[in-house]
Amino acid sequence: WYQRRVRGKFMPELIKIINLSPFLDRGLGFSIIGGKSEDVTQDPGIYIAKVLPGGAAEAEGVLDKGDRMLTINGSYVVNVSRKYAEGLLSNLDDQCVLRVAKPLSTCPI
Predict the structure, then answer these.
(1) Nearest Cα to 16, choosing from 30, 33, 2, 31?
(2) What's 8's DSSP letter?
């Protein structure tokens, strides 16, 4: 785990590596929000917006709304546009390896 500073406060996060295999008809089963924009006051992180019913993410039970994405198949997605992250997610073979930061307050210890 590590702590990152957000608006002057430290937020402890647990870093997890997650392996997902997309379902043929439903994909990875999550949507994302955020990303770097021209609004410099906005947090530039890419976050899980929703875990979709019936998808790989729900079946594995490893992603939660609010998880912050750090890498997609080894490519960093910190301080990038949402369009860039969506491009990485749409160009997958048969496996997706995600590194995510989970707020420690949501993780069972």
Answers:
(1) 2
(2) T
